[in-house]
Predict the structure of Tetratricopeptide repeat protein.
Amino acid sequence: MLILLLGGAAAAAWWVMHGRNAPITEPAAAQAVASAPPQWVEESQCQSCHSTAFADWQGSHHQLAMQPASEQTVLGDFSGQQIASDAETSEFLRDDESFVIRTPDANGQSADFKVAYTFGLEPLQQYLLEMPGGRLQAHGMAWDTQQQAWFHLYQGQGVDHHSQLHWTGALQNANFMCVECHTTDFKRNYDAGTDSFASRFQALGVGCQSCHGPASEHLTWAENNATTTPEQQSESKGFSTSPSIAPAAEVEVCARCHSRRSPLDDGYQHGNALMDDFLPSILSADLYEVDGKIKEEVFEYGSFKQSKMHAAGVVCSDCHNPHSNELRATGNGVCTQCHNTNAQPIRADIQGSGLQARNYDSPAHHNHPNGSAGAQCINCHMPGKLYMTNDLRHDHSFTSPNPAQALELGHTDACLGCHQPAEPAELVAQYLAQYPDAEPRDGGYAQDLSAVRGGKPGAAAALNRQLAREDQPAIRVATLVSELPRYPSLAALQQLAGALQHADPSVRVAAVNNLPALATETQLRDLLAPLASDSIRAVRLAVAWQLAQLSAQTKSGLTAWPTLQAEYEQVQNNLLERAEAHFNLAMLYQLSGREDQVEAALREALERDAAFFPAVIMQAQWQEQYFRLPQVGLAILQKALKAHPREASLQHALGLALVRQGKLADALPAFAQAHERAPDNSDYAYVLAIALHDSGEPEQARELLRQQLAADPANRQLRLALVSYLSGQDSQEARMLMEQLREQNPDDPAVAGR
């Protein structure tokens, strides 16, 4: 199991700010730098030539993304207020010139912590507190700049010092999680030997070089070309790419921060592809709704990447001024730049063949009074959702309302969300009366994906239908490819093999990750070998992890394997502040015959995060299986359960450990607890059913499988287990279950040829 590190938005740092080099002002200095790699410069030098862009940037959310705490920058009330969440109380104080939060520490003891930086501007502002080891931690209390009040980001979740979400924990460490996207040229500079940070940045806030790259060679170019004509000047003007950032690259530049992604290094490198430095998430069911709209906090990239806007060539700066962060126009003006009576896109290189000459900013189109909420394009085509309690973010997949589909498939809808408490059936009737020709604009993607995830009749055919579409956005292809293991067949294996050659790296990664479910070891080796030299790092890392799990004999002859293994290991070493990285290394050490390094890696993981349960479980198994100390393994699990009695994964692991010791009767309560605490986890239900059956409770086992299968009809493992346990009991029910499987996937090996 490869544990990924997901980045998000949350915090900053208290180190001394300094630049890498002094401003280049003399021709000789400029010439000296020209032969060296581009360097970062003081951004004030940009102002003299780029005054308009600089003026736009001044006061923007980008410029003020992170600021030293001061009278001018702190917006919250630090006059001595005591604010209680559902689990803790914090007090906000002044100490001379400093801002202080008196709050429970990692041990639950109240202490005073100095605010080092403000984080963000509106609609909320967070505060970053100084901690030992160069750490900055984001406190859970934030200031609502609209309501002028304190609120807790996790109110109602019982977040105290025992919780992983507590401000002192790894999930609130700003050095790793947040500062990169709130500063320019940030490096975490983590030292694993001392478990400390010496983090640094070129400048606070998101500055010019954050997007355009280090500017030393641009300064050289500017000085050397001061008297030349435009025809004589180089297109790149001293940057690694065009200074205007080509549309083909712009979305990836913005995605470094405006995406849900996992880091692969200590920051990004300008000129790299996005997936050389990050692994963006796909449209998984936990993050996105079935029609692609945002569900959990995913920022903008994933939803935009699947939109018709992106497919037509629209980029972020067509709608947003990249320097001021403001929209290009007010009201519906942003949309009518392209969607207008002339059907002319704002730029010539935007594909406008799908545009229709129509007055969209009219009741004839939106069927709402002008000036009302329903007359605004964003409210119908970009419905918003609150994150971090009060931060409204608009969906960027640009869907159209479809209340009938929403009711059928269970996703949100702009009409249903706005017209409450209207009767849904009446609302659907009104919608169809107003839009009689309305039909899904996604080619049936939502309907088919719902069938796939819900195990409906024709699910495999629906999956194939969507994968066969030539107009399918790559991020949707990657999502669909990830569903193929649910419906095994020779055709599914061939589709996965074909996806390995897809032009988009996100599809290749998805294919690599899901291929083991359908391929033999030999097939896996032969299909993945060509990708060992893939141009994109995220693809190579996925290949490395899959090859690592093959037997040494199967890998023999793969000349690229040592290089792949070294790269995978290096990426983990770039992320050693995280428990996940040490855990990944422990797994790699075990698979590569370096057993003497496994235990130390697990200890390091738990030192970073004592509540990182995969490492706890592996540590217990390692004591049992490698050191032949099963009682020590049990003691590790029992100790962890004492501290975290409601953690389902620990209960499940305890049950498995007891089964391996031949104590099935003792294991049953643990399996039952795991299922009770995580009822949606089909693996826990499956194992509990087996344990019940083997304990002489076959009817309980069958009933559990029936209940779980009703909730997850696409789960082939549950279905076949129930069929097996019905043998000699109810052949009619078994035949019905297999017929349902045939209806889902007639090419399934379990039913094919029957």
Residues 630-643 form the longest helix (14 residues). The CA atoms of residues 313 and 349 lie 7 Å apart. Confidence is low (pLDDT under 50) at residues 4-34. The longest strand covers residues 110-119.
